[in-house]
Amino acid sequence: MTNIVLFGPPGAGKGTQADLLKEKYNLVHISTGDVFRFNIKNKTELGLLAKSYMDHGNLVPDEVTINMLKAEVEKNTDANGFIFDGFPRTTSQAEALDAFLSEKGETINAMIALEVPEDTLVERLLERGKTSGRPDDQDESKIRNRFNEYNTKTSILKDFYAKQNKYFGANGVGSINDITNRISTIIDTL
């Protein structure tokens, strides 16, 4: 199995790239955002709880996120591997993911981080907010708060994966095709 953590701040293009990479490498894409939206739309207990955090531009607590993601992995027991998009976001989530995969005889092969300047991300998210209907994409102060959360809580994951020689940075600016090619070059060397 090939298990990739696709990493980057909100608006970096993780979802777009994951959709292309899942086809190319026949992997299952597990997007934390999509899982949250499914649970929110269906008004599950976990979905309503997640929504209360997201509406204020905050990250959802580990336990809620981990339980949702475990359920998604269990739905795809015959997968060739997974692209985790938006998860893990903290060291404790990364450790929980490692423990969960280890129980299945699997591991994360690489964390690939899309690197994009913050001002570019703000422009992308405000533009996405015009059509997404997501309140957290329509308010620049909420967007900047998400970056603050990302920078203080999740950027430490670079160190977590770098210590395991599994961290790879990829320039997330340019055409979608160029970015996909940069990521593919990394995956092809694993």
Automatic annotation (TrEMBL):
Protein's recorded name: Adenylate kinase
The top of its lineage is: Bacteria, Pseudomonadati, Bacteroidota, Flavobacteriia, Flavobacteriales
Start and end residues of each stretch annotated as NMP: 31-60
Q: Which UniProt keywords apply?
A: ATP-binding, Cytoplasm, Kinase, Nucleotide biosynthesis, Nucleotide-binding, Transferase
Assembly and partners are described as:
Monomer.
* Annotated residues for binding of AMP: 32, 37, 58-60, 86-89, 93, 134, 146
Stored SUPFAM superfamilies: P-loop containing nucleoside triphosphate hydrolases
Query: Known catalysed reaction(s)?
Result: AMP + ATP = 2 ADP
Which gene produces this protein? adk
> Which EC number(s) are documented for this chain?
2.7.4.3
Domain of life of the organism encoding this protein? Bacteria
The UniProt annotation places ATP binding at 11-16, 128, 174
Q: What does this protein do?
A: Catalyzes the reversible transfer of the terminal phosphate group between ATP and AMP. Plays an important role in cellular energy homeostasis and in adenine nucleotide metabolism.
Q: What is its main location?
A: cytoplasm
Q: Does the keyword Lyase apply?
A: no
Gene Ontology BP, a term = AMP salvage
MF terms per GO, please?
A: AMP kinase activity; ATP binding
GO CC annotation: cytoplasm
How does the entry describe the domains? Consists of three domains, a large central CORE domain and two small peripheral domains, NMPbind and LID, which undergo movements during catalysis. The LID domain closes over the site of phosphoryl transfer upon ATP binding. Assembling and dissambling the active center during each catalytic cycle provides an effective means to prevent ATP hydrolysis.
Q: Which family does it belong to?
A: Belongs to the adenylate kinase family.
Tell me the InterPro entries matching this sequence: Adenyl_kin_sub (IPR006259), Adenylat/UMP-CMP_kin (IPR000850), Adenylat_kinase_CS (IPR033690), P-loop_NTPase (IPR027417)
